[in-house]
Amino acid sequence: MSEPENKEKPQETEEEQYARIKAIEKLEARNIPKVNYKWYELGSNICIELYEKNLSEGELSVRLDENDNSQLFLTLRGEEHLFDLYGTVKELSITLKKTKAEIRMVSTGTPAHFPVLLKCEGRINAAKEKKYKELDKIGEADKSNNLNDFFQNIFNGGDDERKKAMMKSMQESGGTVLSTNWSEVGKGKVEPKPGH
């Protein structure tokens, strides 16, 4: 009886990862409402600030889908926009101001915190997070990329003559010259080189 083949998915190149993330962003961008807004949360209260000047009471309305309290429908001057919220909400209210409208609601999910306002933003962030974790792994491998580690690796990887040359040149020059060439350094005193 033969063993099943271990079929690993080929590693994505950086260009393929970038293209995949851009494709997800483009696909999910269709789910972002085409209105000018920002949002913030304070405890379990969420506020969407809709930037639209001189709105009157009949020009803006909001409602939740009767079957899904994470689906917020905002009607602005006759055009409906869907906010597919990250979590469920209740208690909608609107406050009109001169340059904006504030749409307030209370989160009913557990936990009440929204890391993003819209589900599509969460999917975009998840794709980016995967890429960032891979970059973090690469960064860990390159962690010892500082100058001291560089010189330490040269010293540790060298033979006795290289080590003697490095020690003698640094000590005699007061830290202004570093050489790995013992045949040059062993001939005499290493003079300091100011400004180096």
UniProtKB/TrEMBL annotation:
Q: PROSITE patterns, per this entry? A: SGS
For bias type Basic and acidic residues, the affected ranges are 186-196
Cite the SGS domain residue spans from the record: 103-196
Which portions of the sequence form the region Disordered? 165-196
Q: Which Gene3D superfamilies match?
A: 2.60.40.790
**Polar residues biased stretches:** 170-183
One Pfam family per UniProt: SGS
Show the GO MF annotations.
protein-folding chaperone binding
Q: Would you tell me the protein name for this molecule?
A: Sgt1-like protein
